[in-house]
Amino acid sequence: MASSNTAIGSLVPEINKEFSTLDQKGRILAEYVWIGGTGIDYRSKTRVLDKMPEKPEDLPIWNYDGSSTGQAPGHNSEVLLKPCAIFPDPFRAATTSSSSPTRTAPRRTAA
Predict the structure, then answer these.
(1) Looking at the domain assignment, is residue 104 inside a domain?
(2) What does the alpha-carbon distance between residue 96 and residue 100 come to, in Å, rounded to a whole number?
(3) Strands, DSSP E only, in 1-111?
(4) Which of the 8 DSSP states describes residue 84?
(5) Percent with pLDDT over 90 in the chain
(6) For a tag on the chain, would you pick the N or C end, based on fewer CB atoms within 10 A?
């Protein structure tokens, strides 16, 4: 078990800085978010795309195992996710040529 003085990389911006400035070669992370089987929990699935989609129809249809979320029976559990909207992610870097957070990004003050 790590001591309380051990830095956890994901929580220390100085340690992660080198990763936030890596060239992504035009690729982006797209995250599909939906309400889980209980009706009160959230689920999400992230996927790497080769370019920024312009509209929801440009996004691929994704799938997940609905039996693990209570949204499908175990014998027929594949659930398809069809994206219907695109929103900017307030917790990841903005889609700009700069790797710095925008002035209004809530995560800017979280550090």
Answers:
(1) no
(2) 9
(3) 28-35, 42-49, 62-65, 78-81
(4) -
(5) 12
(6) N
Enter the tokens of residue 105.
Answer: 């990004």
Q: What is the pLDDT of residue 9?
A: 52
Average pLDDT of the chain, as a whole number: 75
Q: What is the pLDDT of residues 16-57, one digit of tens each?
A: 777 777 788 888 888 888 888 888 888 888 889 999 899 999
Give the count of domains, the chain: 1
DSSP state at residue 25: T
- Is 39 inside any structural domain? yes
How is residue 39 written in tokens? 């009706």
Q: What is the CATH number of the domain that holds 33?
A: 3.10.20.70
What is the spatial distance between Cα 6 and Cα 15, in angstroms, rounded to a whole number?
A: 12
- Domain with 44, as residue range(s), is 23-87
Question: Region 107-111: what's the mean pLDDT?
Answer: 49
Give which of 78, 82, 102, 76 is closest to 90, Cα–Cα. 102
